[in-house]
């Protein structure tokens, strides 16, 4: 039994941690968020040079050959700095789907460009009506000469404004809610018929509405067989959920530490407010919340390493629900215990909380995942 | 990151499973069920003697005094299997509480006199700590032991004394000196329950049962040879023991088994012709608990892994106690909710078969007595104080 990261994992974790500490302070982040693109291309190139963008990819593509544990190690540290560069959407989600695809030619073409930093990608799956049900796809792909013609509208596509490639879910057969018949297409952001309207989200990251009008895509751009896109999404989803949860864990830990330190210096009634038992007990509760979240993440990482996919699926639903519940507790307590200053835009606390809130709704909120957990656990 | 056990550990697990399956028989289980007319003391002593015969009665003790030479992993496996099998833990007062104090701080005569009889379950021990005026603030105790040559004269009242009605011996914290810090001047004394001047008064608890007592001491003469270590140093010994008491209180395996039983039951109990486990709101309540327990299982494994690597259980054992007891109470609550009206029925006038929902008596009893879990062993509020101070540095 062992809950330590390997030496290699520790090295990459430390390198992300050093970057956040030395080069990504809150002022730097604020400037990046306020810039026109909302991300730093310079830092993105640096991530490439440091090898962070290669983590989940096989060595044959120039990758690090890492597992979900490596992803979690990186994401936790990125969370501590609420880093806005699109690591999750490009490497974990887009990259995760590419890595799991069985289209060898497509992989050889795309993965090296993710690793060298030239390709930013995003999954375009959500539609106005679909909420968290990925199989609810109205965007249609009809066969045409040598490929498909795609039409539809995708909403809140993460970092859609900076992405130069999308993986688009589109229906090649079946009815609106059918799992079968959903296909995954690689689509260039500048392909004719693609329109991207980008907007800021409260966590400092951006999202976009991506409209596709008769976009012609060659059959070679299918990530796996037509109609079997949901299988690929299901296969990668545990990794996505664990990656985002690791980011949330880093955020929660930072909120807790910051809050505890603040209570030691904030004086009221002629004494540090850390001496008040009512606040102490609330901070113990947020400490336990963070430890329990970490344990649930580690449960998932262990089960992933043992290829226990049925158990893993239950765990990742439970993990995302736990992140939702305890993330909210930790975030709200951090604001409350900071008091008035916690309400300001100037202090970093609120920005950490807002990223937690966006993680909560990414790929299904707490109730959504708890309901999935219940179906797996209790339904006959 | 993995939780794989070695082949040796897996073989050990099989041995434990086989032993429990063959030796924990129906007759013992019946006595320990708590049903009317059963003999708890007889049942648990019979079981403990079987454990002793196997050499497994005291895994926590050093081998020189009769402990096993199990690794931390084996101890963990043993506890997990015990909980999953629904086998009660040994009565802790002798084996887990006073014995470590005796073998750590006692003299050779005391070790020779008491330890073998504890191993053999010949002596039943109880704990004389709490007093009417000293609960969570244990050091506020007032029971006095006045030095009188070759003996002490003890006067005072101890309360919440579990199973004092069965006990041969009681270990007590008593005040031997006054006028200093309240933690000083306390001594650790072993007292024979047959000594004149001791009265045991039962306290019936809110589950209608009798396990707790008040123990009164009126001019009780205790030989000085029954003093552990030095006079006035008892607080130090007791504190060492309290840390011991807090570890292993997550009871994940016990809660896992109870939750499984609850799910089983919820698929039988119906409302409007539909099994309760199909009810979406009931499912949410179940998964609130189950998810917390899944996380706690790994928190316990993380604490255990750091202990197996040579670390000591630190203040995180307080976390295990808080979360473990909150979860077991949550299971009791949901079980009683499932029992509905029948959870209110008392066993005086009918038996479980007549009631028709045979888990309901137990559901009520467990819920009511289970309220104690967040009070004893250092209340959960005291545990939060411990984490605030030792972990968060507040």
Structural summary, described in words:
The complex is a heterodimer of chains A (380) and B (394). In chain A, the strands form three sheets. Chain A has a four-stranded antiparallel sheet, with no helix packed on it. A three-stranded mixed sheet of chain A has the order 1-4-5, covered by helices on one side. A two-stranded antiparallel ribbon of chain A has the order 8-9. Chain A has 380 residues and is an alpha+beta fold. Chain A is globular, with a radius of gyration of 21 Å. In chain A, helix 4 runs parallel beside helix 7. Chain A folds into three domains: 113 residues, Acyl-CoA dehydrogenase/oxidase, N-terminal domain (Butyryl-Coa Dehydrogenase, subunit A, domain 1); 106 residues, Beta Barrel (Butyryl-CoA Dehydrogenase, subunit A, domain 2), CATH 2.40.110; 149 residues, Butyryl-CoA Dehydrogenase, subunit A, domain 3. Chain B has three domains: 84 residues, no CATH class; 109 residues, Butyryl-CoA Dehydrogenase, subunit A, domain 2 (Beta Barrel); 144 residues, Butyryl-CoA Dehydrogenase, subunit A, domain 3 (Up-down Bundle). The chains are: A alpha+beta (380), B alpha+beta (394). At the A-B interface, helix 7, helix 8, helix 9 and helix 11 of A face helix 9, helix 10 and helix 13 of B.
Summed up:
Chain A is 52% helix and 16% strand. Chain A has helices at residues 7-23, 26-34, 41-49, 68-80, 87-100, 104-115, 229-265, 277-305, 309-338, 349-361, 366-378, and strands at 121-124, 140-144, 147-158, 165-171, 182-188, 194-200, 206-218, 267-268, 271-272.
């Amino acid at each position: 039994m062992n809950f330590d990261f390997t030496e290699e994992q520790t090295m990459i974790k430390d390198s992300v941690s050093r970057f956040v500490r030395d080069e990504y302070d809150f002022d730097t982040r604020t400037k990046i968020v306020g810039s026109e693109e909302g991300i730093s291309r310079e830092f993105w190139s640096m991530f490439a040079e440091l090898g962070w963008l290669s983590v989940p990819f096989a060595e044959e593509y120039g990758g690090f050959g890492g597992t979900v544990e490596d992803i979690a190690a990186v994401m936790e540290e990125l969370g501590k700095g609420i880093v806005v560069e699109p690591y999750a959407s490009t490497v974990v989600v887009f990259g995760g789907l590419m890595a799991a695809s069985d289209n060898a030619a497509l992989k050889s073409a795309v993965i090296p460009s993710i690793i060298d930093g030239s390709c930013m990608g995003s999954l375009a799956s959500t539609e106005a009506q679909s909420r968290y049900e990925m199989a609810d796809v109205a965007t249609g792909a009809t066969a045409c000469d040598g490929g498909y013609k795609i039409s539809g509208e995708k909403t809140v596509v993460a970092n859609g404004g900076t992405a130069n490639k999308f993986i688009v879910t589109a229906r090649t057969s079946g009815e609106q809610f059918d799992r079968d018949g959903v296909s995954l297409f690689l689509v260039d952001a500048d392909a004719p018929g693609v329109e991207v309207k980008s907007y800021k989200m409260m966590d400092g990251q951006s999202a976009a509405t991506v409209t596709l009008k008769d976009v012609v895509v060659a059959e070679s751009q299918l990530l796996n067989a037509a109609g079997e896109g949901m299988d690929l999404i299901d296969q990668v989803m545990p990794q996505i959920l664990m990656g985002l949860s690791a980011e949330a864990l880093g955020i929660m830990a930072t909120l807790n530490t910051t809050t505890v330190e603040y209570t030691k210096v904030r004086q009221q009634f002629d004494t540090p407010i850390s001496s008040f038992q009512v606040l102490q007990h609330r901070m113990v509760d947020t400490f336990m919340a963070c430890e329990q979240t970490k344990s649930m993440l580690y449960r998932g990482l262990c089960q992933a390493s043992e290829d226990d996919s049925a158990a893993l699926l239950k765990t990742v639903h439970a993990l995302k629900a736990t992140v939702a519940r305890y993330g909210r507790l930790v975030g709200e307590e951090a604001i409350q215990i900071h008091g008035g200053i916690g309400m300001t835009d100037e202090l970093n606390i609120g920005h950490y909380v807002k990223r937690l809130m966006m993680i909560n709704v990414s790929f299904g909120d707490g109730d959504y995942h708890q309901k999935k957990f219940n179906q797996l656990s209790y339904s006959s | 990151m993995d939780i794989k056990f070695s082949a040796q550990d897996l073989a050990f697990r099989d041995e434990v499973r086989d032993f429990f399956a063959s030796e924990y028989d129906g007759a013992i289980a019946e006595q320990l069920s708590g049903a009317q007319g059963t003999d708890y003391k007889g049942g648990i002593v019979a079981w403990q003697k079987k454990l002793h015969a196997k050499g497994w009665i005291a895994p926590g003790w050093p081998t020189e005094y009769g402990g096993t030479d199990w690794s931390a992993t084996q101890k963990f496996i043993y506890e997990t299997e015990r909980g999953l099998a629904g086998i009660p833990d040994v009565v802790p007062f002798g084996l887990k509480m006073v014995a470590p104090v005796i073998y750590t701080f006692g003299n050779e005569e005391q070790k020779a006199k008491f330890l073998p009889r504890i191993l053999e379950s010949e002596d039943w021990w109880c704990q004389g700590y709490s007093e009417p005026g000293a609960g969570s603030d244990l050091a506020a105790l007032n029971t006095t032991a006045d030095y009188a040559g070759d003996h002490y004269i003890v006067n005072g009242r101890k309360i919440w004394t579990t199973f004092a009605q069965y006990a041969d011996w009681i270990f007590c914290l008593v005040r031997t000196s006054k006028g200093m810090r309240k933690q000083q001047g306390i001594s650790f004394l072993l007292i024979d329950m047959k000594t004149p001047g001791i009265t045991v008064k039962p306290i019936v608890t809110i589950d209608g049962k009798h396990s707790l007592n008040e123990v009164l001491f009126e001019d009780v003469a205790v030989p000085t040879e029954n003093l552990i270590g030095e006079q006035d140093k008892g607080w130090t010994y007791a504190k060492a023991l309290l840390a011991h008491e807090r570890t292993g209180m997550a009871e994940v395996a016990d809660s896992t088994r109870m939750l499984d039983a609850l799910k089983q039951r919820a698929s039988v109990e119906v409302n409007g012709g539909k099994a309760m486990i199909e009810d979406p709101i009931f499912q949410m309540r179940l998964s609130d608990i189950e998810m917390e327990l899944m996380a706690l299982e790994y928190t316990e494994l993380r604490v255990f892994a750091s202990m197996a690597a040579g670390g000591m259980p630190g203040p995180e054992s307080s976390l295990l106690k808080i979360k473990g007891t909150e979860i077991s109470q949550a299971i009791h609550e949901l079980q009683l909710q499932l029992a509905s009206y029948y959870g209110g029925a008392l066993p005086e006038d009918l038996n479980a078969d007549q009631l028709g929902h045979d888990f309901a008596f137990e559901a009520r009893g467990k819920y009511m007595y289970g309220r104690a879990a967040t009070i004893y062993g250092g209340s959960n509020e005291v545990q939060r104080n411990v984490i605030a101070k030792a972990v968060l540095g507040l």
